[in-house]
Specification:
Elements: H1 5-27, E1 32-38, H2 42-58, E2 61-67, H3 73-85, E3 91-94, H4 104-110, H5 122-129, H6 138-149, E4 158-162, H7 169-178, E5 182-186, H8 193-198, E6 202-205, E7 223-226, E8 230-231, E9 238-239, H9 244-247, E10 253-254, H10 261-281
Parallel strand pairs: 1-2, 1-3, 4-5, 4-6, 6-7, 7-10
Antiparallel strand pairs: 8-9
Helix pairs in contact: 1-10, 2-10, 6-7, 6-10
The structure holds guanine (GUN).
Guanine binds next to strand 3.
Amino acid sequence: MIISGKELSVKLKAEMAEEVAELKAKYGRAPHLVVILVGEDPGSVSYVTGKAQACNALGIDNTTIRRPESATEEEILSLIRDLNADQNVDGILVQLPLPKHISEEKVIATISKEKDVDGFHPLNVAALWQKDRCILPCTPKGIIKLLKAAGVEIAGKRAVVIGRSNIVGLPVAKLLLDNNATVTIAHSRTQNLKEVCLGAEILVVAIGRPKFVTADMVAPGAVVIDVGVNRDPETGKLCGDVDYAAIEPIASHITPVPGGVGPMTITCLMENTIQCYKNFMA
Ligand code: GUN
C-alpha cells in the first residue's frame, strides 16, 4: 500500500481552508506567516515558493522577506525581533540552511517561541521532550499523521529511525515513543545496520542519501517511511533514501518520493501557523 501524503494533504488543507475562513470572520483578520529567505539557493527558493502557495490556497496571509547572501547576522536577528513584536504576525520561519556567517542557533533562538512554526526553538524542543504543550516540528508531526491515516497501529511496534537530526530523526523518534512504539535510533555509523533494520516493523529513514536502504534491509510487511529528498545520481530525478522499486513489493506500506512525507511537512506548517494565531487570538 502506497501512503500518499499528497492525498491526505489535499483533505487536511480543504478542512483548514474552511477553518481559516471561519477564524477570519470571527477575529477580523487571517493568520499571517512570514518566511525569511537569505540568499538564492534554488532548493530553498523552491521550498519557500511552495510554502507561499500553500498559504494562498488556504487563505493564510503570507509574506516572504528576501535578503541577500551578504546580509549580516545582526540584520537578520534585528528583522526577527521586529517580527516578534509585530501583532499582525503569527508565525515566523527562517528557511534553512543559512549562509555560514550567520549562526542558525542564534537565529532559531531569537524567534519568539510563540511564533516558532517550525518547532525548532530550544524551549519548544525542551517542551517536547518534557511532555509539555509545544509546537511540534512539521515533518515528524506529518509522519505520525500519515501513519495514523493509513491505519498503521504504532503502539507496541518496533520502530527504527535512521537519522538523528534535530529537524527529523530525534523528534520523530520521540513522537513514536509517545505513541508507545519501542524505538531504536540508528545512524550512518550504526554497526550491523542491516540486522537492526530487519527488526523494524516501522522503519523511518531520514539520512539524506539516495538508495541508502536496500531491499535486504527491510523485513517483509514492514512499514517504510522515506523522508529523503535527493537527486538520483543516475537519472537526476528526485528520489528518497530507500530503493523504492525494490522495497515497494516487500513493504506493507511505503511513502513515495515525491508525494509522501514532503506534502505533509507543508500541511503541518499550515496547521502550526493556524495554531499560533489561535493561541494569540484566544
Ligand atoms: N530547510 C529544510 N527543511 C526546513 C524546515 O522544515 N524548516 C526550515 N526553516 N528550513 C528548512
